[in-house]
Amino acid sequence: MFQLILEMFTYPFMVRALCMGVLVALCSALLGVTLVLKRYSMIGDGLSHVGFGALAIATAMNAAPLAVAIPVVIAASFLLLRLSESGKIKGDAAIALISTGSLAVGVMVVSMTTGMNTDVYNYLFGSILSMSEGDVVLTGAVSAVILALFVFFYNRIFAVTFDETFARATGLNARLYNMVIAVLTALIIVVGMRMMGSLLISSLVVFPAVTSMRTCITFRSVMICSAIVSTVCLVTGLVISYLYAAPTGASIVLCNIAAFFLFTALQKLRESLQSREKPL
Amino acid sequence: MSLISCDNLAFAYDGVTVLHGLNFKIEQGDYLCILGENGAGKSTLMKGLLGLKRPSAGSVTFGEDLRAREIGYLPQQTPVQKDFPASVREVVLSGCLSGMGMRPFFGKAEKERAARNMEALEITDLADRCYRDLSGGQQQRVLLARALCATKKVILLDEPVAGLDPLVTINMYKLIERINSEMGITVIMVSHDVQAATNYASHILHLGEDRQLFFGTCEDYRYSAAYHSFMDGGKAVHIWKKAQVKKPAPAAGAAPAETVSAPTEAAPEGTAVSDAAAEKKESPAAQEKAEKEVRK
Asked: Strand runs (DSSP E) across B191-257, as ranges?
């Protein structure tokens, strides 16, 4: 088995997938913590559907997929943020409208042009074969920006996530931070969509954060733990998908589900130990 | 010069005026309680003081060494915070951000400040506990410590006892009183608890019907039309009123009000703070005594 894993990395596309995957997993886990805590989990899901619509249109127009998808998804993320801030349409309803709407547009465009081919299948469920050198470079750049921003603005991101009103009252530009987070989410979703597929990418945002919140009690440890969980699950999922010729995206999500149940069990165990200690 | 003064202040949403004709001054060391029914514009005024809402007319002027962002703010709890994974230390430290400029990380000064405020509010032993596991009263203390980290002079409290049980409520009021008298920090509190307001505050601002119904010392407030119109509303309040009749009024109500307002008006800027703080230290004791008498 060890031999098989070594052999796995002799394929350049596997190495590419691993590099890209680890970076995407790391960044989406960090963003996920703030998104989940701010009750914006579904934004990731909504944006990925918008991404599918954009990719379908790009294919129909014979344009470069990412060049079309990135601006469209960033615009959608601003729109979603504005809608949930203004409160005219409630946040979750707005996301449902936009995500199903763009999915419908995507399906319509596909059926009118190329029909349901493997390209469309890859957009929906992801493929590690579809990634080029350029994608890896783009992923590297995006994740470098995200990691740097998270390190330098860590304390401010915490303040804005925990209590936006207080943060604004003490002079932080909370709206700017929200917008930056929305743009970064849009970027990481478009980039990660190639590998995970637009239907599965939001799991990378939500799962690690929720998993690490089961056991961690400080914000810093939630961040670190979710980054680690996300990376470990991605690598394990990738290996499993190689060994058993399983779909990559689905394998990674299944690993995340396993991690979630593991952490839940740990939490239950700890609780029962604590309650047993108390009466004494 | 006053710490905060509002002249002819008005606020509007989408062109509709919700609050107008506000004229009041807050001096260093005051304990101002903003009263009013739901929808009276208390929250709007608060946002205005914090600089989160622009006035539609008039102005808020801050004293020489105060800016809007230097007001420590205790907001009402949001649903997001109820299950937030963060340690008490992290939450309190986040209050220090306002004074850091563009510096990305907390330095020694900020950490000491957070530790000092945790000590003052007796939550040092909770520092490594998770915020979501604390009781309502403890959470409120943590947020109060955070507010203190964000200011040297003024804290603004938005219904600090909402959802707390009676015993914890009394402790919370005592704590706020101590912050005011011992640390010399000006307190602005939004509340609809008239009883507590008149017990603890030195000044009252009563809002209603889109405008300012009363502003003045707590003593004057008891004789005002605004006070009586507010108090005649509910049955429980009548019982309280009876108790007030028995109370030796000047000893209880007047003492804190006078000691605070007199020196700040008369004394020069520099000494006002310490005078007010020193004299106020005696007044809570007198007040508590009076309260006990009433209970008997």
From this structure: 203-208, 211-217
A153 contacts in chain B (CB < 8 Å): 104
In chain A, residues with a C-beta closer than 8 Å to the C-beta of B50 are 169
Q: 3-class DSSP state for residue A153?
A: coil
The number of domains in chain A is 1
B134 touches chain A (CB under 8 A): no
- Residue numbers in A near B73 (CB within 8 A): 165-166, 169-170
User: Tell me: the pLDDT tens digits for A162-173?
Assistant: 998 899 888 888
Pairing state between β B186-190 and B57-62: unpaired
**DSSP helix/strand/coil, B208:** strand
Nearest CA among A258, A255, A248 for reference residue A16: A248
The mean pLDDT of chain B is 77
What residue of A is the nearest CA neighbor of B73?
A166
CATH number at residue A164: 1.10.3470.10
Residue A273 belongs to a domain: no
pTM given for the model: 0.80
pLDDT confidence bin for A234, thresholds 50/70/90: very high
Range of the domain at A109: 2-266
Any domain includes A275: no
Cβ–Cβ under 8 Å, residues A231 and A147: no
Buried b (16+ CB within 10 A) or exposed e, B36-61: beeebbbbbbbbbbbbebebbebebe
**A31 falls within a domain:** yes
In 3D space, the residue among B21, B123, B51, B247 whose CA is nearest the CA of residue A173 turns out to be: B51
Radius of gyration for the alpha carbons in chain A, expressed in angstroms and rounded: 19
Task: Work out the pLDDT band at A232, boundaries 50, 70, 90.
Answer: very high
| CATH placement of domain B4-66+153-295 | 3.40.50.300
pLDDT at A206 over 60: yes
Gap between the Cα atoms of B156 and B188, Å rounded: 5
pLDDT at residue number B260: 37
Reply yes or no on whether the pLDDT at B277 is more than 80.
Answer: no
